[in-house]
Amino acid sequence: MRALFETLPGGPGDITLLYRAGAEEQLVLRAELEAIAAERQAGLHYLLGRSDDAHDPLAPRSLLTLVPDLVEHDVYLCGPPGMSDATRGALLRAGVPAGRVHSECFSF
Question: Beta strand pairing status for 16-21 and 75-79?
Answer without folding.
Answer: unpaired
